[in-house]
Amino acid sequence: MDYQRAQQIVTSPKEYEVSYNGVSVWIDKLHEDGKTATVHLRRSLEEKSEVTIDELKEEYLVQ
């Protein structure tokens, strides 16, 4: 995923399915460097990680 698409997903009122290494995540914050983001597992708000945006994958739109 690129930074622009990640930004669109974060600011959208719609809910998108995003994965990191095959695991469903929420994008919490995009970092100013334009290359990294803070994400957390959809099942656990406590497990946050900083990842590179290009490792995020948009799976499908959740209806």
UniProtKB/TrEMBL annotation:
Matching Pfam families: SspH (PF08141)
Chief site of localization: other
GO cellular component: endospore-forming forespore
InterPro entries per record: SASP_SspH
UniProt entry keywords in alphabetical sequence: Sporulation
Gene Ontology biological-process entries: asexual sporulation; sporulation resulting in formation of a cellular spore
Location in the cell: Spore core
Domain of life: Bacteria
Keyword Cell wall biogenesis/degradation: no
NCBIfam families with a match to the protein in the record: SASP_H
Sequence similarity: Belongs to the SspH family.
The protein's name in its UniProt record: Spore protein
Organism: Ureibacillus massiliensis 4400831 = CIP 108448 = CCUG 49529
